Amino acid sequence: MVLWALAAGLPLAFLGLFFVLPVVGLVGRGFVTDGSLDLSGFAEVMSRPRTWRILELTVGQATVGTAIAVLLGIPGAHLLYRTRFRGQALLRALVAVPFVLPTIVVGVAFRSVLSGHGPLAFLGWDGTFAGVVAALVFFNYTVVVRTVGAFWTGLDPRGEQAARALGASPARAFWSVTLPALVPAIASAASIVFLFCATAFGVVLVLGGVGYGTVETEIWVQTTQFLDLRAASVLSVVQLVVVTASLWVAGRARRRREQALSRVPESRPVLALRGPDARGGDRLAVAVTAAVVVLLLGLPMVTLLLRSLRTRDGWGLGNYRALGVRGFGLGASGWEAAATSLRVAVDATLIAVVVAGLVALVASRRPRSRGLRRAVGTMDAVMMLPLGVSAVTVGFGILVTLNHPFGLAVDLRTSPMLLPIAQAVVAVPLVVRTVLPVLRAIDSRLHEAAAVLGASPARVLRHVDWPVAARSLGLAVGLAFAVSLGEFGATSFLVRPSAPTLPVLIYRLIGRPGADNLGTAMAASVLLAALTAVVMALAERLRGDTGGDV
């Protein structure tokens, strides 16, 4: 019991010190005037037309982005998880890359496509709502494909088979039987996509232009440019309420999905894309997925690569050679920034995997006591809170509150581990969602049988839980590493000016005039994307069929 208390207490202490304390401290500064609580800021901030325009844009982009991602993702889920064809594994890997790409890279990539002499400049989407939504769909297409596809492969086939036997066409059987059965997975994916769209930061900051903003970017603007902590606090509270509602919906949908899967007697066999098992719906799935992969996923990345090779003297590697140049007020060269990013990401990954592993281990237990079950469920929900709070709020909160917390003589802001810790706070919820479903899939009777046979709790963990959890460890490490590499919101406040990470360096380059700076930013973006892709490719090779949520 003591070991389980420690396993639960350490992550909660970590979250309390490096997330709850900074966020509450920052929000409190906005609501405390002359030592007394002052909530008049709500009425003041919510009465501003600018605030309502920001809220409308945030909800609008999240709603439209979610709807498009779901509509495009369902055919992709069918093609990648319900059919069989040569090169399927490679296509799955390619489709998974956008989700883990750094937001700053995606912003630069879409900017290269939509602005200036980009191939889609004629659309006029640069700095518009449509351009931002397209980039958000690029990010979240993977979430829908993986979540719905993994659920689809486990559906009981007998319902659709019965409908076909009664004379229903494949299309009618899909609309009447299969689609209703997919609702738990679709709802789970949609709620998570809505969450990611509503809290997007780097993409909106790069693509949105001067007249476009969301709650996330507005918190950053109010904090860094106007120093209006009251407005930032109000917006942080509003965002937390909206995102908490999204997490609640996602949790309910996830539980429905797990219950549905637990009732499936056997996995449904996949269909051949060609031959006698092929159906007309496969052709639609192929057409939609091909268009998405080529136009939405491939074109921005290919354009980014080509633009990184274009210099004022023609085609060449000049922009990449410029990454080795230090100075010009950037604090470090591109290669030095890459080394800093990798070093920080290693530390952040170790912290995130340890903390998230303990959370997943505790949350996967099924205690008999109703009180303990509620406590476990509450802990799982609490550890998801970093998904619902702006990374900007977390970063700035750490900066202003962790000087001497709890009267300690140590100023934690001077610690070199503060940046990895902040990135780990952002990565922990995603790692938990990767590992937890795997541990929950373990039959509790295995634990009971091992205990009856005299195995100690430590031995049960070593011989029952660890072999199963190890299957998801590769993906968890890769995801944490990728998230840390690309983290920009909290990092922009905590990074030292003389030692920027690669995303921060890219943003500084974008903000400087001149084609050479833009070319170097694109080269740095390609470098960051390549590092992320390599990490995730290694993680995919190490993982099994984990069944995680992301």
Automatic annotation (TrEMBL):
Its main location: membrane. It comes from the Bacteria. It holds the Pfam family BPD_transp_1. Residues 55-250, 338-539 form the ABC transmembrane type-1 domain. CDD domains: TM_PBP2. The chain crosses the membrane at residues 59-81, 93-114, 120-139, 182-211, 231-250, 284-306, 344-363, 384-406, 418-436, 472-495, 518-539. It is a multi-pass membrane protein. SUPFAM superfamilies: MetI-like (SSF161098). Coiled coil: none annotated. InterPro entries: MetI-like, MetI-like_sf. Keywords: Cell inner membrane, Cell membrane, Membrane, Transmembrane, Transmembrane helix, Transport. Gene3D superfamilies: MetI-like. It is found in: Cell inner membrane; Cell membrane. Belongs to the binding-protein-dependent transport system permease family. This is Iron ABC transporter permease. It comes from Actinotalea lenta.
